Amino acid sequence: MKIAFVTDSGIGKTAAEMAADGIISLPLQISVDGRSLQDMEDIDKDQLIALLQEQKVMATSLPALGRIQECFEQLKAEGVELIFAVPICSGLSGTISAMQTAADQIGLPIITIDTHVTAVVQEYLIRTAKQMAEAGASMEEIQAACQQVIDTTNTLILPSDMQHLKRGGRLTPLAATLAGLLKIKPILEINQHTQGRIDVKEKVRTYTRALERAVQIMKEDNIDEHYSITIAHVDAPQTAEQLAAILRRTFPKTEIQIIKLVNVVAVHTGLNTQAIQYFRKLD
Fold this sequence. Notes:
It comes from Holdemania filiformis. By secondary structure, the protein is an alpha/beta fold. Helix content is 39%, strand content 23%. Helix 3 (65-77) packs across helix 4 and helix 5 (120-134) packs antiparallel against helix 6.
């Protein structure tokens, strides 16, 4: 069976980077000043940070429907019999639904995985799915493996300015009410339990306390050498390095990396955000 593996720019990589490994990535969209920019094509992470520094009001949306349709029609014409897709989660975007509809309209079977997050986990799962399929695994085995990772995945977000999240509508009503409480430093989370929506995990009084509590939450999740930890920041590399130093002391056997936060999340969290995403890797 000929299978196409499809994702989107929620992984934070360009389409060319993913195509080099035989994976198709469709661009999400970022709207600013009346223009619709194709994420990781028309605008990279540094360019997005520049717009945030200019205090530009931005919004995000799913890939252009016509582009999804054109992509899937081309895949069908090339003899693809099944699409395996790992898009940005349904709690943040309508991409999964749009892909399902586009595939149904042309009679092309599709399997979609809702990661309930985005970024590193999203990329890990689409790459894992492709590798497993090439090794002869069944679709059922691949889906079960993906779910195994999703079950251990969590993302903690430490925003500097709640107004970005509130304006973008990416917070639940409870979380949005915190926007005006300037003395409160919330720890936000997005995972399977929040159904892929950003919600408040806890509220503390200082940023230092937020960092300490985030580390404690990770300890409670029993992170060990089988996990992968990613620190993603929005124009705050020094703080990210400080956080990484704390995590390396706390979890000395665990793989830890620092990246820039993916554009479609950074738009809503704003500058100086720190996010920590972690999951248990497959054996």
